[in-house]
Design a protein that fits this description.
This protein is of the alpha/beta class. It contains 8 helices and 5 strands. The protein has 2 domains: about 1-50; about 65-230, Rossmann fold. Strands 3-2-1-4-5 form a 5-stranded parallel sheet, sandwiched between helices. Helix 2 links the parallel strand 1 and strand 2 (about 90-95). The radius of gyration is 28 Å and the shape is elongated. It starts with 6 loop residues before the first helix and ends in an 8-residue tail after the last helix.
Length: about 230
């Protein structure tokens, strides 16, 4: 006697087979994606980093500008450029001092503000005080800082300056300068490489990850014209 499975039983068997096939196909796709991610994540993450970096050939300029922040590495680079004869002057803006730092200065715990530290670092690296120009206007963000630098450059008749900043900050500095100078004064970028740009695994360093995120948010704010709202 031959027993023929019912239509319902055959349907259940077919359904289980399809489920297994879909599960196997899904696992295969996940495996392929995981393999691709393991192979490609490093190049992709390096591209994310490299997109922020602007490197330009050296040219003699009227002044070297130390973009605020990153003391003393930016000052070291600016001094090296000065000693190499790329410019006769180094300009230092006046970075605004937050209340907590001002309290330390008022108590005599911290002897200098950010600008004072920058000037002293330049002198330690071999730039004479007579070659250093300091600006009086306190600035909080890159836009207001470079706007003040443009005004100072125009007042002194400078036609070309070199902007010294960290590598991952250079793309934003280039964009801000092009907007603030409007082609009236040429700005050349000179980058300082640190562990966030020279290293091959920046994403494993919390400080570097935060720095890159900050730069991309800053670029987005510039393109959206909302950077003046952010401090």
């Amino acid at each position: 006697m031959v027993i023929v499975p019912s239509v319902g039983a055959r349907t259940k068997v077919f359904g289980r087979r399809m489920t297994r096939r879909r599960l196997l196909a899904g696992l295969l796709i996940v495996g392929v994606l995981a393999t691709l991610a393991s192979l490609l994540h490093r190049p992709l993450l390096r591209t994310v980093q490299e997109a922020l970096i602007v490197e330009e050939p050296r040219e003699r300029v009227d002044a070297i500008v130390v973009v605020a922040g990153g003391t003393p590495s930016r000052e070291a680079q600016a001094a090296a450029l000065f000693r190499a004869g790329w410019a006769p002057t180094v300009l230092v803006s006046r970075q605004a001092v937050p209340d907590r730092v001002q309290s330390l200065i008022d108590m005599g715990i911290r002897p200098h503000d950010f600008q004072g530290e920058s000037v002293l670092a330049l002198q330690k690296y071999g730039v004479p005080r007579s070659a250093i120009v300091t600006l009086d206007q306190p600035v909080e963000i890159t836009e207001t800082e470079l706007r003040a630098v443009v005004a100072a450059a125009k007042a002194r008749g400078w036609r070309r300056v070199m902007l010294v900043t960290t590598a991952t900050h250079s793309r934003r500095v280039r964009l801000v300068w092009s907007r603030e100078a409007g082609g009236s004064i040429e700005g050349r970028i000179a980058v300082v490489h640190d562990e966030c740009s020279a290293g091959q695994t920046w994403w494993r360093r919390r400080r570097c990850s935060e720095a890159l995120l900050h730069e991309y948010l800053g670029l987005a704010a510039l393109y959206l014209n909302v950077s003046s709202w952010m401090r």
